[in-house]
Design brief:
The chain has one domain. It is 47% helix and 26% strand. The chain is built from 2 helices and 3 strands. The chain has a 3-stranded antiparallel β-sheet with strand order 1-2-3, covered by helices on one side. A hairpin with a 5-residue loop joins strand 1 and strand 2. 3% of the residues are buried.
Length: 115
């Protein structure tokens, strides 16, 4: 298999992986602990409380998550988005190399017939 065929196969594999990602979301999950004062005056930390943060309209927004199960769902969706970003970067790299080969007239061993 020559380079052009390999890159064409690789591009198809990347597109297939992107199609299989499922639901995704941008953002991150953080754990918050809230300082609380007891009736005797001593302090303790309540939590952790899970917070999903994301950008919307140029501002950072937050949403408190109900429980650990919802937090795990959001984590999976955030990881899917990060995988999407990685795959997109790979797709651009492969596509640029394919474009270089096409511009040079080396498409699977075929030479540019316009010379």
């Amino acid at each position: 298999m020559d380079e052009y065929q390999h890159l064409t196969w690789r591009r198809a594999q990347i597109v297939k992986q992107i199609g299989a990602l499922g639901a995704m979301r941008m953002g991150s999950i953080t754990e918050q602990h809230l300082p609380t004062r007891r009736s005797d005056g001593s302090m303790y930390r309540r939590g952790p409380y899970l917070t999903y943060t994301f950008k919307h309209g140029g501002k950072t927004r937050g949403k408190h998550l109900r429980d650990a199960q919802e937090g795990e769902l959001y984590r999976r969706q955030i990881e899917a988005f990060r995988r999407y970003q990685d795959l997109c970067a790979q797709l651009v790299q492969v596509s640029q190399r394919l474009a270089d080969l096409e511009a040079a007239g080396d498409q699977g061993g075929k030479k540019n017939s316009r010379r």
